[in-house]
Amino acid sequence: MRAQQKKFMKYSFLRKKTQLLLVLFFLPLFVLAHIPNQSYIFLRIYETDDVHGRFEINIREVNKVFGTNYKDGVTLSDVEPKIEEIKAYLLKNTSFSSDFGDHKIVLDGTGIFEFNLGYFVQVYFHLENTKNLPEKLNVEYAAVFDKDNTHRAYLVTEYNWRDGVINDEKNITLDFSPNKTQDTMDLTKSSIWNGFYAMVKQGVWHIWIGLDHILFLLALILPSVVRRRKNKLNVNSIYGWEPVKTFKSAFIYIVKVVTFFTIAHTITLSLASLEIVSLPSRLVESIIAFSIGLAAYHNIKPIFKMKDWVIAFIFGLFHGFGFASVLSDLGLTNEFLTLSLLGFNVGVEIGQLAIIAVIFPVLFLLRKLKLYPKLLVYLSVVLIVISLYWFIERVFDINLVIDDYITSWAYDIAVFLGLK
Fold it and tell me: What integer pLDDT is reported at residue 246 of this predicted model?
């Protein structure tokens, strides 16, 4: 009996110990399951303009401060009766200063933003006397802390070319709490190299997620390792291909096509970014979709005999306009525009070369297989179908859903590879 009691007591102790460990293990999960109470200041720092920014404060925090009862799904018109009070409150609890003196906060506009942490009220602003950037920017922020001592606030540098930050909403620079309502931004660590490198990364990233650009390249390089041959009637056959004899021959083909594509999109990327030439985005995107199908059709039935570079150059012009729209979306200004163009273009070329470096050796190894001519034709047919799908979407401005899944898949791979 005593042995059984000892066994039971030992079991009971182990069970309690296990329960305690489980509680300690899962407690952080329950704590983190509570949505954090946060507000944000986003800053966009330009060389030749005032510092621009916006406040974003969660509607739950607005409710705490003003005794309102806003819920998820709130609209700007719902908040409108309180918006002037919210503005005054933020101005009272925020300040910016430097060796140049105080930088007055000038409020611009308002909005509502839905995020996975809830709905946020946005108040836009710019700082006066910042066209000459100070070395240090002192920031004071004390909003909400008097109503909620668990509240936390973050200052995010959303754009600073010299710091290599281009439209990044994850770049937390300063943090604030009830015991830390003042902090200082150091603006002396930035350099032109950081901005240039950031633009190179943007170029690589946007050639990766630009699936239409990738498929256009694929259509162009599929025939790089084979040459057309004629049948007994001296007519080109659909499957009438023979493998190139040397690597040099295939490599020269690749160099020629890629060079003309690069020259073309560099020309229009520069013209569009400098606002010398402008085309409607819908037209450009539709032609880019069409270019894939035409390049693929050329693989089945030649349009420009022995002049594949013509397709690369003509449609490369429109792909350049597509790249220019990306630069526009990044919110770039005229500051360092030349370096931005150069860096972005270098990134695009690195991205292109990486894609070709993966695909071309595989094609070269497969070129002698009897299956390759049929593979070339079948893949070209698939590219034509994809091209028509995108062309219809873009011309008629409709969403046929399928490419959303493909884009999501490409994005996940890019994140996995550390490209984003």
Answer: 86
